[in-house]
Amino acid sequence: MRLNTIKSHLYFLLGALVFFSACQPEEVTDGNGLSDSNVDASFTIESVSGEPNRFVLSANRENVLKFLWNTGDGFYEGAATEELFLPDAGTYSITHQAYGRGGIINETSQDVTVATSDPVAGNLIKGGSFQTQADHDEWTILQISDSGTYWTFNEGSANVVGSGYNQQGIYQAIEVEANKDYTVDMKVFGSGATNTWFEVYVSSTPPVQNQDYSAEGRRMGLSTWDGCANGPFEGKLSNVGCVGSGNTVNFSEDGTVYLVIKSGGENMGSTGISITNVEFRGSVN
């Protein structure tokens, strides 16, 4: 009797398992309500009346849990409605990622064309996208350490690699007006580094070859000791950076200032640190 009872229990459990398995969908997206493979990533772009460099991005809100936008400098988390300021003339690709239930991500992109540059916030940096040899020629290498770290200019970016706690920089002269606010920023990306710094300075003090540069303190940057650039990163330095006194600057006199970008450390990772879309602009309210 005891053996027959055990067998009966086993048959019951086996039958229950078969029934339970038959009732489950093969995928989490198969109508169980836990995910939404059709999450709507579409959005509209509307120009702001009287503001040729400002646009409003509006995405569908229904069943969207998170909105990520990319206007050319990497994705950032935003809202369903975003105001976009594009101070430079050109054509831009805008991408929206919509996150739905179950971690489903859908993505759409649109182009927007800006006819004229903003007269106040037009970029004062020359060759900041590093697309051509002419762009590369706008920059000067600042030699600091004897060897071990160096910058190279590529089609669309500048890249610094190195090891052994050596450092090297690049810089460009800019003409500014007195008592006017300016902002500096750039897109940065890399695979992650160890004991590494990446620093941005803006000062009227000219760089000197074979000397370090720290005039008036770093404005912004990356520092593995302070918690950024330890792993892969990509985005505007103002978003992914973690050190510096701030990327807004003001000068008491008209004249020439220098944007200096320097980097060094123990190990800058397999791809080094790259930059593009370097900008220095008059601030717009």
TrEMBL record:
Highest taxon of source: Bacteria
Alphabetized, the UniProt keywords read: Signal
Q: Which residues form the signal peptide?
A: 1-24
What protein name does the entry list? Answer: PKD domain-containing protein
The organism's taxonomy opens as: Bacteria, Pseudomonadati, Bacteroidota, Flavobacteriia, Flavobacteriales
